[in-house]
Write a structure and sequence with these properties.
Layout (H helix, E strand, L loop, with lengths): L4 H9 L2 H9 L4 E4 L6 H10 L2 E4 L3 H15 L4 E3 L18 E3 L8 E6 L3 E8 L2 E8 L3 H11 L5 H8 L9 E2 H5 L13 E3 L9 H4 L4 H27 L4 E4 L5 H11 L1
Parallel strand pairs: 1-2, 5-10
Antiparallel strand pairs: 3-4, 5-6, 6-7, 8-9
Helix pairs in contact: 5-9, 6-9, 9-10
């Protein structure tokens, strides 16, 4: 969901909803499983004068929510069926999600939570799970580097442009090294061999010509590629065939699509 929080705050400030909530704000306690420096919580507290009670039960709540939605709805999950990566890893349009629920076939599965960092969990039941591993390279890595390297003001713009960006202007691919697919070890030519490798030898005037959309696609591909490599290794070790991705930051189809470019 793309949200302009400045516009949203202005809209809410002019609604009767805010007036009613302000009247009970001091007595209204909102439990939260999010972080202690969370943008969304600060936004809610400032707009509605809520009291926020912090709790450290995000994973337990998320896993129970998944179980509830899987049991009671037909569209708890989605995947991206079909091939949508063309020559040199260029996306052939934005893929259309296919929604479904797994019902009794859900467990066991790997849950990958994409937040500031990334956490990988094995889930054997609604109340039976364990953390397998984590990565410090997550959503905030992408957003922080975007701010350093590009002129984007909003993440939504960067995600939109990642669909039209050409990461081959900055990334070194298998095809760049071997002239095509590396069939001996099963690597397609579009697979990224080294992120931002081509930037190393560029002069200053050449660097200034690199497009923001190309940087966005490269960064997003790097984050998703790292996530998928770790996830695949852990899933193999744990003998898991289902991986569930969840997170609030990204347009998920774009995020998953960039993963296929990288990996």
């Amino acid at each position: 969901m793309n949200v302009n929080y400045t516009q949203l705050k202005t809209f809410l400030s002019n609604t009767r909803l805010k007036v009613k909530l302000k009247q009970v704000g001091k007595s209204l306690l909102v439990p939260s499983t999010s972080g202690y420096n969370d943008f969304y919580l600060n936004f809610l507290q400032d707009t509605f004068n809520f009291q926020i009670k912090k709790a450290h039960s995000f994973f337990a709540c998320a896993i129970l929510a998944i179980a509830f939605l899987n049991r009671n709805t037909p569209d708890c999950f989605f995947d991206l069926p079909g091939k949508f990566i063309g020559q040199r890893g260029v996306a052939e349009g934005k893929p259309k999600p296919r929604f479904f629920s797994k019902k009794a076939d859900l467990y066991p599965y790997m849950l990958v939570t994409i937040r500031s960092g990334i956490v990988f969990l094995r889930v054997d039941g609604p109340k039976n799970f364990k953390i397998l591993d984590g990565s410090n390279i997550g959503a905030s890595t992408y957003l922080g580097l975007l701010k350093l390297l590009t002129s984007y003001k909003y993440p939504e713009e960067a995600l939109r442009d990642a669909n039209i960006g050409d990461n081959s202007t900055v990334d070194l691919s298998v095809g760049d090294i071997y002239g095509g697919d590396y069939l001996a070890i099963g690597l397609a030519s579009h697979v990224i061999a080294s992120t931002f490798c081509k930037v190393r030898g560029k002069r200053k005037n050449e660097l200034e010509r690199i497009k923001d959309c190309d940087i966005s696609k490269s960064l997003l591909s790097a984050v998703t590629g790292n996530m998928l490599q770790i996830g695949y290794l852990l899933a193999t070790l744990e003998n898991l065939s289902t991986m569930v991705l969840m997170g609030p930051y990204f347009d998920a189809p774009t995020f998953m699509q960039m993963g296929t470019v990288a990996y």
